[in-house]
Write a structure and sequence with these properties.
Elements: H1 2-20, H2 22-33, H3 40-52, H4 58-91, H5 99-112, H6 115-120, H7 126-129, H8 131-136, H9 141-167, H10 170-179, H11 181-200
Length: 218
């Protein structure tokens, strides 16, 4: 059951990384960072598995993950920079960015400044949509790229390492995976439903007036 639902995605990820190596990691992580729900939690651990069997270098895999994150984040930043808050408020739902997300980003940047983009790159879900608000707030681009890369590098090292350790026990985990496949599918569906509900529930009140955007020092 699980294989029929998720196998095509996993097979595509595995085939891309197996065929293209580090460039495959860069490409997939760029997609994930461009507001497209292709989770890094499914990309980097497989790169770690290839590391565990000697087909990829540990540091190269982590660097490729961080580089891909920057590659995918910059277009989102530019879109926010030139489109501005009105554009994202109107079309943001198609990028899974809500008004609530924009206000949260305002608060993060107001409280922590540019360092917030370093921290956000190590937080699930938040790391995917933070680039658009960064562009809207006109955060200094070189600093944004720097903090994005460093935060993503730490995140990538963590997930690649997880993949290395899981790869050492791949057969045992595979048997466990199939034994509890129905439960795993239900958990995945619940998490996916929560993720989508979180991003769309705030769009019910379209007439709500947002607080004035926080100015960020250039």
């Amino acid at each position: 059951m699980l294989d029929s639902l998720l196998a095509p995605i996993f097979h595509w990820i595995e085939a891309t990384i197996s065929g293209l190596g580090a460039m495959g990691v860069v490409m997939l992580m760029a997609i994930e960072s461009a507001n497209i729900p292709l989770p890094s939690e499914a990309i980097l651990p497989f790169a770690g598995y290839l590391v565990s069997i000697g087909k990829m270098n540990f540091h190269v895999a982590a660097f490729a993950g961080a580089l891909g994150c920057v590659v995918g984040s910059v277009p989102s930043y530019i879109l926010g920079f030139f489109g501005g808050r009105p554009f994202v408020e109107k079309y943001g739902k198609w990028f899974l960015v809500t008004r609530h997300d924009l206000r949260a980003a305002d608060r993060w940047v107001a409280k922590y400044g540019d360092v917030s983009f370093f921290v956000c790159r190590m937080l699930p879900i938040v790391r995917t949509f933070i680039s658009l608000p960064a562009g809207i707030l006109r955060v200094n681009l070189p600093r944004f790229v720097f903090f994005t890369f460093i935060g993503s590098l730490i995140w990538s090292y963590l997930l690649v390492y997880v993949g290395v350790k899981l790869g050492e026990h791949r057969e045992a985990l595979s048997r466990l995976w199939h034994k509890f496949d129905i439960a795993i599918v239900l958990v995945c569906l619940v998490l996916a439903g929560w993720y989508l509900r979180r991003h769309f529930s705030h769009w019910k009140d379209e007439e709500e007036t947002d607080p004035a955007p926080v100015e960020v020092a250039q």
